[in-house]
Design brief:
By secondary structure, this protein is of the alpha+beta class. It is built from two helices and five strands; from the N terminus they run E-E-E-E-E-H-H. It has helices at residues 44-108, 114-148, and strands at residues 5-7, 9-11, 14-16, 23-28, 31-40. The longest helix is centred in the middle third of the chain and has 65 residues, at 44-108.
Length: 152
């Protein structure tokens, strides 16, 4: 016969001896002289400790879930705002491009001077720059949303 294994109580993720300090032997039903294992005899204090550990684990889990839900809500809100900003800046960029084209056409027809064309083109480039930055921000917000939904 091999030496029987001693089993402890699993409480709050750790293997511990019972508060009672008592054990009992589990016998092989086919050979009652063969001890299959020695187990901790648990009492009310062990049950209370296990329940306290469960309560703490549940509280930690709820806090993690709440934090994850808050992160998700913030990420959704930030992505939505970033997409709205991109949409508005696309409209502004198209309008400034149209204005630059009109200014160039007026210059070619002699109705305005080169300074107005250059000013319209500068405005167009600034709008394109803001649009490019907004697209970067939207991409960053999308990546944060992906992470908040469990993506790696």
């Amino acid at each position: 016969m091999a030496t029987p294994k001693i089993y402890k109580n699993l409480i709050d993720g750790e293997w511990v001896e019972s508060f009672t300090g008592q054990t009992y032997e589990n016998l092989n039903p086919a050979d009652t002289s063969d001890v299959v294992g020695i187990f901790q005899r648990s009492g009310k204090a062990d049950v209370d400790a296990a329940q306290a550990g469960e309560d703490e684990a549940r509280a930690r889990y709820r806090a993690v879930v709440l934090r994850a839900m808050q992160d998700l809500e913030v990420s959704i809100s930030q992505y939505r705002a970033a997409r709205l900003r991109v949409d508005r800046l696309q409209e502004a960029s198209a309008a400034s491009q149209h204005a630059a084209e009109l200014a160039l056409l007026r210059f070619k027809e002699g109705a305005t001077d080169l300074l107005q064309v250059l000013d319209a083109q500068r405005t167009q480039l600034e709008a394109q720059d803001r649009l490019a930055q907004a697209r970067i921000d939207a991409g960053t917000a999308y990546a944060a949303l992906f992470r908040a939904t469990g993506g790696r």
